[in-house]
Amino acid sequence: MLNATEKFSGRVGFLGLGIMGAPMAQNLIKAGCDVTVWNRTKSKCGPLISLGAKYRSSPEEVAANCDVTFAMLADPESAIDVACGKNGAVSGMGPGKGYVDISTVDDATAKLINGHIKATGALFLEAPVSGSKKPAEDGQLIFLTAGDRSLYDSVAPFLDIMGKSRFYLGEVGNGAAMKLVVNMIMGSMMASFSEGLLLSKKVGLDPNVLVEVVSQGAISAPMYSLKGPSMVKSHYPTAFPLKHQQKDLRLALGLADSVSQSTPIAAAANELYKVAKSYGLSDDDFSAVIEALKAKSHDTA
């Protein structure tokens, strides 16, 4: 491991500078890494360029000019397009290079991208993360990796800059599957928490007290104490967009279906997030799912 005064060796590419990608790339730059960035909307590269990042006009150019390229895209379609589409990263890959896809995708997408990357002679690692905006800013993400072990070992210093822990899970597809299971649980928990907040208020209890009670018991989770107070105020600052939570539930249900596993709670939660999307809440935080329950109670009142 290099000491704090040394620059990390190797040129690092970063594709996708959204809510998660921008702070992750920023942490790499601040740690002294040689970072080259690309984003569909070029203006999002500006703040990172001002911190010292280089810019290239396509994923292909980033990959061609870097030793390892990280990608943090919104969904499977974007992940495939940026990796394998026109001027995609695959066109700039080759022996001695590595591609690390941090996007949350299904296992089939991870395996598809892996196949294209490996065909160039490069190495591939899927590394979806558990954590949202603030953990990304604070370098406290949890990496769920799978793929080439040698690439995992060589990018470990970069993962340690961006995260607090990392797991190596074996074959490509396992990282995606673990992330979907985690987010399936999270989405169901938030839906149930929303029901509790509304029920407490409706029977005359103070929902803020409910948040305190929950936070001190066996069912305590940081998510509840973090999101609860703002949810009581009908305020949903976006840390993890609701549309992405619904996408992850949809993908998790598909994963469950592929192995004939019953997931009735997640299926019900998915329907609630779909209702919330229909009310125009896609870009709000996923905690805004409570608004779908409010609307449903008004519909039946």
How would you sum up this structure, described in words?
Residues about 1-5 have low confidence and may be disordered. This protein has helices spanning about 20-30, 45-50, 60-65, 75-85, 105-120, 135-140, 150-160, 175-200, 205-215, 220-230, 240-260, 265-280, 290-300; strands at about 10-15, 35-40, 55, 70, 100, 125, 130, 140-145, 165-170. It has two domains: about 10-170, 3-Layer(aba) Sandwich (Rossmann fold), CATH 3.40.50.720; about 175-300, N-(1-d-carboxylethyl)-l-norvaline Dehydrogenase, domain 2 (Orthogonal Bundle), CATH 1.10.1040. Helix content is about 50%, strand content about 15%. The N and C termini lie far apart (about 60 Å). The chain is α/β, with parallel strands linked by helices. The protein contains 13 helices and nine strands. Strands 1, 2, 3, 4, 5, 6, 7, 8 and 9 form a nine-stranded mixed sheet that branches. GO terms for molecular function: glyoxylate reductase (NADPH) activity; NAD binding; NADP binding.
Could you give a short description of this structure?
The protein has 301 residues and is α/β, with parallel strands linked by helices. It has helices at residues 21-30, 46-50, 59-65, 76-84, 107-119, 133-138, 149-162, 174-202, 207-215, 222-232, 242-258, 264-278, 290-300, and strands at 11-15, 34-38, 54-55, 68-71, 98-101, 123-126, 129-130, 141-147, 163-168.
